[in-house]
Write a structure and sequence with these properties.
By secondary structure, the chain is mainly α. The chain contains 6 helices and no strands. The protein has one domain.
Length: about 130
């Protein structure tokens, strides 16, 4: 599935350099697929934070992980700050108990998570 998402992302990159909401969503999905071990570690940290009733920040998590791990995958994904918004939302789907301990600002990817639009791999957003 990662290769299909990577192909879709590559087509989007040809159209524009700025990351659209769709690109951010697709890139975050591909990052999770390319880095399952690191994603599992992130989810574990989120579960521990929720259990301990501690604040959890995806940006802070990326800062901590940058020094310890080299992301893998065909495209050699990096810990890019532009991915933290969609990754935080994917994390909430996987670890909903961390929700009260995360502060989420508004993001252009929200429409794929709040039901406004279907995810890009399904049908995208007609709006």
């Amino acid at each position: 599935m990662v290769s299909a998402l990577e192909s879709e992302l590559a087509m989007h990159r040809l159209r524009t350099e700025a990351l659209s909401a769709e690109q951010m969503y697709l890139e975050a999905r591909a990052w999770i697929g390319a880095n399952p071990d690191i994603w599992g570690l992130v989810a574990g940290h989120a579960r521990a934070a929720a259990h301990d009733r501690r604040r959890f920040s995806m940006k802070r998590e990326f800062e901590d992980l940058r020094d310890e791990y080299a992301p893998a995958g065909e495209m050699r994904w990096k810990f890019r700050n532009s991915l933290t918004a969609p990754l935080a939302r994917f994390l909430l789907q996987e670890v909903p108990e961390v929700g009260p301990y995360m502060a989420l600002g508004r993001s252009k990817v929200d429409r794929y998570f709040d039901g406004t639009c279907s995810p890009p791999e399904a049908a995208g957003c007609d709006a």
